Amino acid sequence: MYTPSPERYTDTVGYNFCGKSGLKLPRLSLGLWHNFGDVDNIEEAERMLNYAFDKGITHFDLANNYGQPFGSAERNFGKMLNKNFAAYRDEMIISTKAGHIMWPGPYGDGGSRKYLFASLEQSLKRLQLDYVDIFYSHRYDENTPIEETMGALSDMVKQGKALYVGISKYPEDKAREAYRILKENGTPCLIFQGRYSLLSREIETEVLPAASENGVGFIGFSSLAQGMLSDKYLNGIPENSRAALSHGFLKKEQITEELVIRLKKLNAIAIERGQTLAQMALAWCFHQQQVTSLIIGTSSIAQLQDNIDALKNLHFTNEELWQIGEI
Q: What confidence score (pLDDT) does residue 252 get?
């Protein structure tokens, strides 16, 4: 039986206030997009979850369709939560989302009130919870009026099924509209979740400024670009890597010769800093002050600790930032 370490807050990952709210998030949050489904090693997943909590990682990020098959990450997390963390629920931030395809037919996708409420109820059953801390609209749905989507999010908070709400991957103009509507509804947007990494910097010009102006926090996902920003792919595609799997989002053809050349240049800078490439890639994201937290997805405790160690050196010289930008 797992018992959390009494030292879990003495050597922690550190915490940031999320936007203008009173909620703090750990600088690193554990994502369950990969490695927590029925096709994965559940024993290792449970060990990672326990280890993360022992290190002060209190935020666990899910979505209705995480895991293979869909819903299995929430269901497996719910079992682990009930087994190991029932007495520690109030020390945890648990988030989930809906917006992408989850079940067949006209009501299993998008941003309608019908889909969002049905999905939340299903997620709560899988998670074995009465409420989630954060519920996201996982994507902007151009076929649903944004007032309907935001109204559903607001009502989830008012009904006590979610404490906070957020949006993910919204275009900047629609994000601003969402922020306005949610504020008018009395349920201000807590957080924006978006892709952010050395290889994907689009949010810097519009999304981050809009979030900052509206007092909204930002949490990044895929900050290691599905593992590409690690030493895994410096010499080809390893047998057990994500790119080698038949399922998942990272494909072999994404590991191009041009990419490998860039990765090797970045790795040289990381070595000079005394970091692994993955550690430098995570640390680099925090040079943007608007970044509240980063979602990390790991397949082993060793990877998890390597990611945590990135926080030991978050300082970059202007020369390093220039070199990285050039690459």
A: 65
Compute the distance between CA of residue 127 and CA of residue 227 in angstroms, rounded to an integer. Answer: 27
- Asked whether the predicted pLDDT for residue 270 surpasses 90, the reply is yes
Rounded to whole angstroms, how far apart are CA atoms 250 and 232?
13
Dump pLDDT digits (tens) for 154-169: 999 999 999 999 999 9
Average pLDDT, the chain: 94
CB under 8 Å to 119, separation ≥6 — which residues?
64, 98, 102
Q: Identify each DSSP E strand in the chain by its residue range.
A: 15-17, 24-26, 28-31, 59-61, 93-98, 132-137, 162-168, 191-195, 217-221, 291-296
Q: For position 244, what pLDDT does the model report?
A: 44
pLDDT over 60 (residue 242): no
- Whether the link from the prior residue into 69 is cis, omega within 30° of 0, is yes
Alpha-carbon torsion angle 179, 185, 186, 189, nearest 10? -20
Residues whose CB falls within 8 Å of the CB of residue 21, separated by 6 or more in sequence, listed in order: 164, 188, 190, 215, 217
Residues 6+ apart with CB under 8 A from 92: 53, 58, 59, 60, 81, 85, 133
3-state DSSP helix/strand/coil % of the chain, to nearest 5: 45, 15, 40
- Helix-helix angle 42-54:301-308, to 10 degrees: 30
Phi and psi angles of residue 135, each rounded to the nearest 5 degrees, phi first = -120, 130
Give pTM, 2 decimals.
0.93
pLDDT band at 247 (very low <50, low <70, confident <90, very high): very low
Alpha-carbon dihedral angle through residues 231, 233, 234, 237, given to the nearest 10 degrees: 140
Sketch the domain layout of the chain as residue ranges.
Answer: 15-232+282-317
* Domain boundaries 15-232+282-317, corresponding CATH code: 3.20.20.100
User: What is the spatial distance between Cα 73 and Cα 79, in angstroms, rounded to a whole number?
Assistant: 10
Q: Please choose, from the candidates 113, 115, 134, 116, the residue with its C-alpha nearest in 3D space to the C-alpha of residue 192.
A: 134
